[in-house]
Design goal:
The chain is built from eleven helices and eight strands. The longest helix is centred in the C-terminal third of the chain and has 18 residues. Helix 7 links the parallel strand 5 and strand 6. Strands 1-7-8-6-5-2-3-4 form an eight-stranded mixed beta sheet, with helices on both faces. Helices cover 38% and strands 23% of the residues. With 281 residues, the chain is an alpha/beta fold.
Length: 281
């Protein structure tokens, strides 16, 4: 992983995926499918740029963090390493149990209905989770528990497969499973395709009220994957978490062969995108 650099400039917006983005917070079946193999999810999903964690802390009034949809605790561990006190809220009991086994403090529940029991925080963070949360009710809850000047920060990894890799992987998917829920195309996102999700989060902040005008941050980095590393994480991606083994294995075999043809590894550029705003007094 390379060092990450912040970029507050906005990306262009396009419309693909608007229907899914509009209703993603209602799709609980997919949201709760990632706990099927929590250990694999934790092992293979990348951490967030240290520069992002540092930027969130530096622009917040203190170091009490609530991690919403904390999953197995990836971001929690990073905030803890940066000297924060961190509580997680996670709706999937399998993910919450995994995080607790690692010594993390996690309470189970959906954020919109979770009872803070009078507790307040300096940061409400959500790593790759805010799209599963009602965009208005979630912001209203965040405003209720954030101290004045506290920061709401929702962030996501976005990657763009290099053209040669994307073409090879898509050919592998179509060869392995011509008719499938993944539509014969390799999983992947572009910033343009992801922008509606970021815009939805920002609009939810504006509509709920109680916050300053939302900002969009960007941190760029890259990671080189070996064949085994990519195949290890691939089953944790979106629709693939729910594919039966007899449909998943041909995809893994075909993608593995494609990576072998690329030299056994490839480098993937990432942008970690953040929608963030400060709580008004």
């Amino acid at each position: 992983m390379t060092t990450s650099t912040p970029d507050s400039g906005r990306t262009s917006m396009s419309a693909p995926g608007n229907a899914h983005v509009a209703n993603s917070h209602r799709q609980r079946e997919m949201a709760e499918s990632f706990g099927v193999d929590a250990e694999r999810y934790d092992r293979t999903r990348p951490a967030y740029p240290d520069a992002l964690i540092d930027q969130i802390i530096a622009t917040s009034p203190g170091r009490d963090v609530l991690d919403v949809g904390c999953g197995t605790g990836t971001a929690m561990r990073q905030f803890l390493s940066a000297g924060c006190t961190v509580l997680g809220v996670e709706p999937d009991p399998r993910m919450a149990a995994f995080a607790r086994r690692g010594g993390l403090d996690v309470e189970e529940g959906t954020f919109e209905t979770w009872d803070p029991a009078g507790r307040t925080f300096d940061v409400v963070a959500a790593g790759t989770a805010w799209h599963w949360i009602d965009p208005i009710a979630g912001v209203t809850q965040a405003a209720r528990i954030l101290r004045p000047g506290g920061r709401l920060a929702a962030f996501w990894h976005v990657y763009q497969l290099p053209a040669e890799v994307f073409e090879s992987f898509t050919a592998a998917f179509r060869q392995a499973l011509p008719v499938s829920p993944v539509n014969g195309q390799a999983p992947g996102q572009s910033l343009d395709a992801y922008q509606p999700l970021l815009t939805k989060a920002a609009n939810g902040i504006r509509e709920a009220g109680g916050f300053a005008e939302p900002e969009q941050w960007r941190h760029d980095w890259e990671r080189t994957y070996t064949r085994d590393e990519w195949l290890d994480q691939l089953p944790t991606s979106g629709t693939l978490t729910r594919l039966p083994r007899e449909e998943l294995e041909p995809i893994l075999d075909a993608v593995g062969a494609a990576i072998d043809a690329l030299g056994g590894r490839f480098t993937l550029p990432y942008a970690t995108m953040t929608v963030t705003a400060t709580r008004l007094s």
